[in-house]
Amino acid sequence: MLDDTKSNKVLVEVKDLKMHFPIHAGIFKKRVGEVKAVDGISFDIYEGETLGLVGESGCGKSTAGRAILRLYDITEGSVKIDGVEIGDTPQPNLRKMRPTMQMVFQDPQASLNPRMSVAAIIGEPLNEHSDMSKAEKREKVLSLMDQVGLNRDFANRYPHEFSGGQRQRIGIARALALNPKFIVCDEPIAALDVSIQAQVVNLLEDLQEEFGLTYLFISHDLSMVRHIADRVAVMYLGRVVELASRETLFSDPKHPYTQALLSAVPEPDPWLEEKVDRILLEGDVPSPSNPPKGCNFCTRCPQVMEICKTEEPPTVEIAPGHIAACHLYS
């Protein structure tokens, strides 16, 4: 169930989204296969909520986030944002939709132009999508710097003069410039020091409360997702294997992969740490260019059955709002 402060209106609808990248080989660059980075995921994100998207490196989380914002031309599926279908919209026609949906990138250093001042970086979306005067833009940029906790005296400085946490704040201010409804946060704290991570997450929460923002929060840091997310979707090898409210997922995970993932979270209390029953998965994650037949997780699952090796598991609603793709529940 959603928190009372959250809306019951669905802002983002993702249905059977696929993002396959072609593999070319040989002298004539013939297509010999494809990397199934995202292989048929479906979920909704409600207005004003934060949906956490978790999974180990290479499972397709970041690709999913970029595909939802149509930074890629998707292979198949449907993406609706605020009721508007953008899955098959040509890139030039997406331009007028860009103010609604923005992204905060993982590496603040790489996502900021080193030759542009902070004021120019934050103001760039305003140049592209608004008809404000120069003075109005300047005031808007300074106001955004105030909102994300940056000193407005630093407006004419360049990205290399800032710390990692400050650079991420610049990226957040740029994302907020056009008053978006939906922001994809692609591991926004992964490149930051632990001491700074909490500040950035708290800033995101404060901005969400102030502006009614909706987030897709992509991360492999489960403790941070537990702190910020309302609901959590777990990805493995291009597919969503479980989705539930934060409390349900962390207290009663159903999918064997989710159970293994949560068992790996360090326990700060040494007495409790000794009692944690770690689930160690054998083998490596299969290649997304050649996933196993049947269930993607069957090669590593401690509860594997014969049916898992031949048939793809259906997505089952175990309890209201709690779904899992596993033959144990079908």
From TrEMBL:
Q: Which InterPro entries match?
A: AAA+_ATPase (IPR003593), ABC_transp_ATP-bind (IPR050319), ABC_transporter-like_ATP-bd (IPR003439), ABC_transporter-like_CS (IPR017871), Oligopep_ABC_C (IPR013563), P-loop_NTPase (IPR027417)
Q: What Pfam family is a match for this entry? A: oligo_HPY
- Domain (ABC transporter) spans 12-262
GO MF entries: ATP binding; ATP hydrolysis activity
Indicate the transmembrane segments per the record: none
One cellular component term from this protein's GO annotations in UniProt: plasma membrane
Question: Superkingdom of the source?
Answer: Bacteria
Question: Biological process GO annotation list?
Answer: peptide transport; transmembrane transport
Chief site of localization: membrane
Which locations, inside or outside the cell, does it occupy? Cell inner membrane
Q: Which CDD domains match?
A: ABC_NikE_OppD_transporters
Protein family membership: Belongs to the ABC transporter superfamily.
Question: Which NCBIfam families does the UniProt entry name for this protein?
Answer: oligo_HPY, PRK11308.1
Query: Under what name is this protein listed?
Result: Oligopeptide transport system ATP-binding protein
The lineage, from the top, is: Bacteria, Pseudomonadati, Pseudomonadota, Alphaproteobacteria, Rhodobacterales
